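Reading a protein record of the kind used here takes only a little practice. The record below shows the convention in full.

——
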Amino acid sequence: MGGPAAIAALAYGTKTIPKVDKIIGPGNKYVTMAKKLVFGDAGIDMLAGPSEIVIIADKTANEWFIRQDLLAQLEHDEDAKAYLISLDGVIQKK
């Protein structure tokens, strides 16, 4: 379950989903707006904007881990930003 409909279902409950005390976790701009709208009826962690990440690495960094970290942030929102700064110009595949 996800998106603004999930936020509403968790905040107010449905026949099959019990109302929760607090809603936490990232989301896109629509999820953020939904969390803003239900605040007061359900607790929320925070109103987060699009995800941003900067990774600074050298040639000893694990390329697979870097790729996974960048993708994990980009999946949240089309406005998310991910940057890699390579100190050596090359990240070795491992």
About this structure: The beta strands are 22-23, 43-44, 52-57, 81-86. The chain has a mean pLDDT of 88. Residues 63-74 form the longest helix (12 residues).
